[in-house]
Design brief:
Layout (H helix, E strand, L loop, with lengths): L1 E7 L6 E7 L4 H5 E4 L3 E7 L5 H10 L4 H11 L6 E7 L4 E5 L8 E5 L2 E6 L6 H11 L4 H14 L9 E7 L7 E6 L4 H24 L14
Antiparallel strand pairs: 1-2, 1-8, 2-9, 3-4, 4-5, 5-6, 7-8, 9-10
């Protein structure tokens, strides 16, 4: 019921992921990103505890393969899970348990991973990896293009209702955390939200790091 992609930009050090599902609020349960650490995706019959644990294990210096193995040891129900780990050097690993739902598949590419379950076809993750590798520009835009490619390749077997874009850069907090929930076309809506947020993104970072030089909020009462 979910398809996702995670990516790393070696030029900027940015890490992030994009995800969509027929379920509501998919990003809150399935997508985890740590600044300077990596990305942890936990989906299918989801155990959200595995996301933060995956980031902790990456911070300890474990490889993505070692993290996947450790998560399996930590979760007695791992056969239900689909897991993806991408570290801060662009190395990735994926796992699909024997009880993963419907058609499911994963793909590992250059500085990216992708996976999905209850898919329309097994080629969806490979389409996302191909789109990410061929894309250029801001990491968030590349991730969104990859998610759109996954949808165009068939996406989930049924309609999707939620989507999200989560990304960390130099600040410890997510510089991009955009979510669309219970929408008829959540991926299209997510693109609209990103297009509106992108021109404002740097201003919010400046407000945190250098408020003396921050731009005006441009709202009534802000003088």
């Amino acid at each position: 019921m979910t398809f996702s992609v995670a990516g790393f930009c070696p030029e900027t050090g940015m890490l992030g992921c994009a995800i969509s599902s027929s379920s509501i609020c998919v990003t809150s349960r399935c997508a985890f990103v740590g600044s300077g650490t990596g990305v942890a995706l936990t989906q299918n019959v989801t155990n959200p505890d595995l996301g933060p644990l995956g980031l902790e294990l990456l911070a300890e210096g474990k490889t993505p393969e070692q993290v996947i193995a450790a998560l399996g040891e930590a979760d007695s129900d791992v056969s239900w899970r689909q897991l993806g780990i991408l570290n801060n050097q662009g190395a990735g690993a994926t796992f699909s348990g024997e009880k993963a739902l419907g058609l499911h598949a994963t793909a590992v590419g250059n500085n990216c991973i992708a996976m999905g379950n209850l898919l329309a076809n097994e080629g969806v993750p490979a389409a996302m990896v191909e789109a990410f590798e061929a894309s250029k520009g801001h990491l968030a835009e590349r991730l969104l293009q990859a998610l759109e490619a996954g949808l165009a390749a068939g996406g989930e077997l049924g309609p999707v209702h939620s989507a999200g874009l989560l990304m960390c850069a130099e600040p410890k907090w997510p510089v991009v955390d955009l979510r669309v929930d219970w929408h008829i076309e959540p991926i299209s809506e997510l693109r609209m939200v990103w297009q509106n947020y992108q021109p404002q993104m740097q201003a919010y970072i400046t407000r945190a790091l250098d408020p003396d030089n921050a731009e005006s909020y441009g709202v009534p009462g802000d003088e």
